[in-house]
Amino acid sequence: MHALDNVIWKALTTRQAEFAESCGEARRFIPSVTILGGLRECTPEGYESLAGLLGVGEVIGLFLDEPFQPIQGWSFVAGAPLLEMVAENGSALQAARGAEFTELTSADSPEMVALAALTKPGPFGSRTHELGTYLGIRCDGKLVAMAGERLKVPGYTEVSAVCTHPEHTGRGFAKMLMIELRRRIADRGEMSFLHVREDNVHAVELYQRLGFGVRVRGHYAVLRRGPD
């Protein structure tokens, strides 16, 4: 297996086990951190274990190898084809210029959640920032762009929540933030990876220019637990 295969499960059983809630063959992040979860294997037994972690009506986000197939007790809420992209070397990147980065903390969480809700880079909770370094760019004191670290497995760290307020796009903030994060990840001897919707052509092109290449194609699925 590649280190990034079944990456959410692997993160929750290795470097990010402290954030895990577990039941049998399933794991999920503490919901206030993120809605993501994972199964050891996508089997009826795996989904049965997952049901033990969620109350009726709760949702979970899964990364799947294939499109979600209906299974009793679960309804499909939303999803999309997903690309997993990897950049193997960031140590040679020049420091990003043109912006001052702020390391974001719990005090910045309300602004981070609001920016993510506006720009929709992916699931983002009030404690997502606890998963790793999150950097922001402020204009006139207002948080207008951010990016940070989400999933972590041995040797790899995911760049996530890359977003810019619509009134401040076109200024290269996303590129600057990603370059800085890649440099910091490389300085730890790790490789950067990310996930992006396949139909987000603009973002995919940006990531390719920054040295990311597609490793695998998969599917993101948000599921709601129904009554047994």
CATH topology of the largest domain: Aminopeptidase
Give the low-confidence spans: none
H and E string: HEEEHEEEHEEEHEHE
Distance between the amino and carboxyl termini: 34 Å
CATH class of the largest domain: Alpha Beta
Portion of residues in helices? 10-25%
Word description of this protein:
The chain is an alpha+beta fold. The protein folds into 2 domains: 7-82 and 219-225, Gcn5-related N-acetyltransferase (GNAT) (Aminopeptidase, 3-Layer(aba) Sandwich), CATH 3.40.630.30; 85-216, Aminopeptidase. It has 5 helices and 11 strands. It has helices spanning 7-13, 44-51, 109-119, 173-187, 201-209; strands at residues 20-23, 26-29, 37-39, 59-64, 74-87, 102-103, 134-139, 142-153, 156-164, 191-197, 213-225. The strands form 2 sheets. It has an 8-stranded mixed sheet, with helices on both faces. It has a 3-stranded antiparallel sheet with strand order 1-2-3. The longest helix is centred in the last third of the chain and has 15 residues, at 173-187. 36% of the residues are buried. The model has no long low-confidence stretch (mean pLDDT 94).
